[in-house]
Amino acid sequence: MYRSAAKRLLHSLAAPLSDSSSNRIIRFRPLQSLISHSRFSTTVNSEPFVSQNPTYSDSTSSTADHTRRPRVEYQDEQARVLQASLPHVIRLGWSEAAMVAGARDVGVSPSIVGSFPRKEAALVEFFMDDCLQRLSDTIESSTEELRSLIPSERITKLVRIRLEMQAPYISKWPQALSIQAQPVNVPTSFKQRALLVDEIWHGAGDDTSDFDWYVKRTVLGGIYSTTEIYMLTDNSPNFGDTWAFLDDRVKDSFDLKKTIQEATYLAEAVGAGMGTSLQGFVKSVFRG
Question: CA within 20 to 30 Å of 43's CA: 52, 116, 180, 219, which one?
Fold first, then answer.
């Protein structure tokens, strides 16, 4: 869901990607500048799907002052394979094997997996896009319920809804984070997280277009990523400790310095136990 405020603020920052014949060269840019200023698409990496030329539905629905973001429509056959692969992730991880199993489930030749240059990353990115769309749909269908909550409760609710989508895959989520942390995948990973944070703020009713736009999204990005990492080590029933942790972080969010310091500390501590690649990724998330 591209929002007008985001487009206005980021238009001047988003440098175009350079193109040389058929090879795209991606320059690493700050998190906010990875958000496209034209249409929703998270394929900004140097090796896009071979036949992935997403089309968009331009239909809009008027909700308050916002315009609904266009849906991404993957190539039908690829989308069916990726969607069918997700149930296999629980057993096979974010892997080519899961994609092969998904292809077989929908009666497609496993050779289609070869059309995804970054195979495992394609699966993770499809899941992230799918979750963002589901969150957007939830926000749109829960407008009155969200309005009955105070802003901090709205944010807590929306972050929890989004993280609960990852719960079935929690044992394999460290692998997903490691895939996202690979250099070729980082631009798309950052972009997807930026879109997610923006969606949550707008779902909470935020329409700021000044400097607060950046501050709020930096804080929420830290809260989201810290809670996501905390969730990996949570053995409490139904992730009860995670939701209590999230609630505390949101309540403390007005203390910007405290929130960012705590988020960075936990990310570095947990990241150190998962490998330098993931550690570098989570540290860079909190730098903005």
Answer: 219
pLDDT tens-digit series, residues 180-225? 999 999 999 999 999 999 999 999 988 777 777 888 888 899 999 9
C-alpha to C-alpha distance for 62 and 150, rounded to whole angstroms = 22
Residues 6+ apart with CB under 8 A from 229: 266, 267, 270, 271, 282
- Residue 188: CB partners within 8 Å, gap ≥ 6? 42, 43, 44, 45, 121, 125
Q: How far apart are CA 80 and CA 95, in angstroms?
A: 16
The 3-class SS string of 157-194 reads: HHHHHHHHCCHHHHHHHHHHHHHHCCCCCHHHHHHHHH
- First vs last C-alpha separation in the chain: 21
Q: Are strands 71-73 and 18-20 parallel, antiparallel or unpaired?
A: unpaired
- Rounding to the nearest 10 degrees, give the CA dihedral for residues 74, 79, 83, 86: -90
With a threshold of 0.85, does the pTM exceed it? Answer: no
Rg from Cα positions in the chain: 18
pLDDT for 257: 52
**Average pLDDT score over the chain:** 75
By residue count, the chain amounts to 288
* Contacts for 115 with CB less than 8 Å, ≥ 6 apart: 49, 50, 51, 78
Distance CA 126, CA 203 (A): 22
| C-beta of residue 118 within 8 angstroms of C-beta of residue 50 | no
Instruction: Take residue 254 and report the two structure tokens written for it.
Output: 């007005």
Between CA 261 and CA 284 the distance in angstroms is 13
Q: DSSP labels for 86-133?
A: HHHHHHH-SSHHHHHHHHHHTT--GGGGGG-TTHHHHHHHHHHHHHHH
